Amino acid sequence: MALAFLGFMAEGVVTSILFRSKDGQDRVHAIQRHLLIQAFAFLCLLGGFYAIYQNKVVHGKEHFKSVHGKFGLATFILGIVAPLGGLISFRRLGLLQKFPDKMQPRIKWAHRNIGILTWLLALVTIQLALTHHAVWKGWVTRVWQLAVVLLGALVVGLAWLQPRARPMPAGADFELVMEPTQKHTPDLPRTQAD
């Protein structure tokens, strides 16, 4: 789970923040990189959840009883929902186009926000685990706690400071845009007319 959230998903979130200001083929490559990184995060999430669940079964312990366990379950559920939203958002798969044009920007907005919420919730879940007596290692644990807080602050700061993307023509996520990019007002939803 640590590899999923502190490694791959953290990198995937940063990648998604950085491609906001890109367009054309640079954006396409950044989105593909985001997809690949998040796929690895998803596999680690599933493997980590299975290992944790089986460990509870082997030791005859109840599932999802502690605050950490409840936060972990919520994080796991959102960790499945966010990638599903991402798959719908990738134009090449053709799923996004099945929704009305007006809904498409909302679906992408929901994916972005559920993704960042999932990652931030994972950081809270990690903090809750670090305070458990079985994990506590004194100053080493304090360093881990500080590192998790700093990672979260850095990514949130990056998200806050990174300029927003200009709206691109519908279908441009995986196609080379051959026309010069038009100037648009930031944060307008993408439509077929753009």
Major sheet: none
What is the CATH level 1 assignment? Mainly Alpha
The tally of helices reads 5
Percent of residues in helical segments? 55-70%
Kindly, what is the distance between the CA atoms of the first and last residues, rounded to a whole number of angstroms?
41 Å
Basic shape: globular
Q: Overall mean pLDDT score?
A: 85
Poorly predicted segments: 172-188
Our count of domains comes out at 1
Task: Write structural notes for this entry.
By secondary structure, the protein is mainly alpha-helical. The radius of gyration is 19 Å and the shape is globular. It has five helices and no strands. The chain has helices spanning 2-18, 24-58, 67-89, 104-130, 139-161. α3 (67-89) packs antiparallel against α4. It has a single domain, classed as Four Helix Bundle (Hemerythrin (Met), subunit A), CATH 1.20.120. The longest helix has 35 residues, at 24-58.
What's the gist of this structure?
The chain has 194 residues and is an all-alpha fold. The chain is 64% helix and 0% strand.
Chain-wise SSE layout:
Elements: H1 2-18, H2 24-58, H3 67-89, H4 104-130, H5 139-161
Helix pairs in contact: 1-2, 1-4, 1-5, 2-3, 3-4, 4-5
Summary tags:
single chain, Four Helix Bundle (Hemerythrin (Met), subunit A), 64% helix
